[in-house]
Amino acid sequence: MRRFSMICLAVLAALLLGSGALWWWATGRVAAETELWVAARRSEGWRVAMGAPEREGWPLSAHIRLRDVVLHAPVPAPVGMDFGAGEVTIGVAFLHPRTLQIRPQGTQHVRVGAGPDLGFTTVSHVFTTELSDEAPSQDANVAIEGLLMQAPGAAGPLSVGHILARITMSGAAMPQLALKAERIGLPASPVATALGAGIDSMMLDAALTGDIATTLSAWRDSQGSLAVRQFSLDWGRLSVKATADLRLDARMQPSGRADASLVGVGETMDALSKAGLILPRAAMAAKAVLALLERPQPNGPAVVQLPLTLDNRTLQLGRIPLAQMPDIAW
């Protein structure tokens, strides 16, 4: 019996030693691949700063922890994008060794171009991508739970209960984004008071064409476009479904067309009028015009069909001008 116990202890010690060696090798490989990625991005003009990698995760996973991570991506120029996080863990779980996990943690921030620096926190935030023998896939899944973001000057935070997105970059003719967000809590505003403080759900399925790797003007010159293949929004009694095709014109201003289907337009106009956001007479006129565009449905409320175009900064409903859009200075 004693000899059997000694054999079991020896086997256990060998397993622990082997798993420790595997963990040490795997975390070293993750750290080395991360350094290669950083070097490649810096050669493309990115600015990358982060602390030294710290190994962790044994015995179930091989991760490194990076502190004070700051990324500046210069594309698409001249806009660029900045991202920062207090901590980021990168690695794999031994039960799923082909799935790379990237988890930003702590206070994070993002800024696009000269826009505001948006700070946010999440309960859970993970990027996953599949690994191959050559390199990580450019496709990624993003799952976020409990996002809380405070925009400068906003009367309260923006919250999102659940976000699920898939970004497809490889093996397709154009980059694609599929995104769904649920339980969106809005900052206090007159519109939120009128329509509801929360958006039940929002869904977007979009794709880019053209050269997006350099500048916005190069993207425009390559006949680049943003194809919104499906968009939906459920906000109180208002339900929106739309498709769109957008691009930049010769003056670098957005242009294109969209087709939207709306349910609950009459109730929405009444709510906006009651909140004092539009005059009662204007609400009645809008309801009368939109009633002409209603299409009855056999098993549901009537749907308002809106063919919209944006040309020379003028938003039009069919041939009727609706609004003059502001000039965007990129």
Account of the protein in words:
The structure is a single chain. The chain has helices at 2-43, 190-195, 216-221, 265-274, 280-292; strands at 47-49, 54-56, 61-73, 81-93, 96-112, 118-121, 124-130, 140-150, 158-168, 176-185, 198-209, 225-235, 238-248, 254-263, 294-297, 300-311, 314-317, 320-324. The termini are far apart. The longest helix has 42 residues, at 2-43. It is 23% helix and 49% strand. The model has no long low-confidence stretch (mean pLDDT 86). By secondary structure, it is α+β, with helices and mostly antiparallel strands.
Mean pLDDT over the residues:
86
Span between termini: 78 Å
User: Largest sheet at a glance?
Assistant: 18 strands, antiparallel
Structural class: alpha+beta
Number of beta-strand segments: 18
The low-confidence runs, each spanning 5 or more residues with pLDDT under 50, are: none
> How many helices does DSSP assign?
5
**Radius of gyration over alpha carbons?**
25 Å
Q: What form results from the Cα inertia axes?
A: elongated
Topology readout:
Elements: H1 2-43, E1 47-49, E2 54-56, E3 61-73, E4 81-93, E5 96-112, E6 118-121, E7 124-130, E8 140-150, E9 158-168, E10 176-185, H2 190-195, E11 198-209, H3 216-221, E12 225-235, E13 238-248, E14 254-263, H4 265-274, H5 280-292, E15 294-297, E16 300-311, E17 314-317, E18 320-324
Antiparallel strand pairs: 1-3, 2-3, 3-4, 4-5, 5-6, 5-7, 6-8, 7-8, 8-9, 9-10, 10-11, 11-12, 12-13, 13-14, 14-16, 15-16, 16-17, 17-18
Helix pairs in contact: 4-5
